[in-house]
Specification:
Layout (H helix, E strand, L loop, with lengths): L6 H4 L5 H9 L4 E6 L4 E9 L2 E9 L19 H17 L6 E3 L10 H11 L14 H4 L10 H9 L3
Parallel strand pairs: 1-4
Antiparallel strand pairs: 1-2, 2-3
Length: 164
């Protein structure tokens, strides 16, 4: 008799062994997801394997903080990931929430990519997260100098800092 894997595992959505380890820690999770158009970050608390989202941030919110409307297509870039991490870290500190564990789910972690730009944003906002310095993207990519439509990095960062 053949054993069939769980549906979410077959679809490539859930790694159950990784999820069990995260749940056993009993710490909140910072969940990072990328869609075709946006970056999404959620602060999730689990109780008896039931997830409750405390707050969520997506890259559409960057438009409120000075991201140019003409550059709407780059809301899933390395720069947008950095700002989502920075915005999320500021919200965690403002609401005085417990420091979370970062949950990348089924993403493959590639150095200098969006995932590590998100982590760099969390660290720059004041959260203490252990990570190798060489894993982070270069400063030019974080500031959006690689994008076709240039963004005002300092204006967006100062707008996000006002949240504190």
């Amino acid at each position: 008799m053949r054993i069939v894997a769980k549906r979410r595992r077959r679809e490539g959505k859930t790694n159950y062994s990784k999820r069990i380890k995260l749940l056993k820690s009993e710490k909140p999770r910072m969940v990072f997801r990328r869609t075709n158009n946006y970056i999404i970050a959620q602060y999730v608390v689990s109780h008896d394997a039931q997830d409750k989202v405390i707050f969520g941030v997506d890259s559409k919110e960057l438009l409120k903080h000075g991201w140019p409307k003409e550059a709407k297509g780059s809301l899933k870039s390395v720069t947008a990931s950095y700002f989502i991490g920075y915005l999320t870290g500021n919200k965690i500190q403002k609401e005085k929430l417990e420091k979370p564990i970062v949950d990348f789910g089924m993403f493959k972690t590639k150095y200098k990519g969006r995932l590590f730009a998100f982590l760099k944003g969390l660290i720059d906002s004041g959260l203490e997260i252990d990570c190798k310095e060489e894993a982070f993207p270069e400063e030019e990519r974080l500031k959006g100098q690689h994008l076709k439509k240039k963004i005002d990095f300092d204006k967006i960062k100062s707008s996000i800092e006002k949240i504190k």
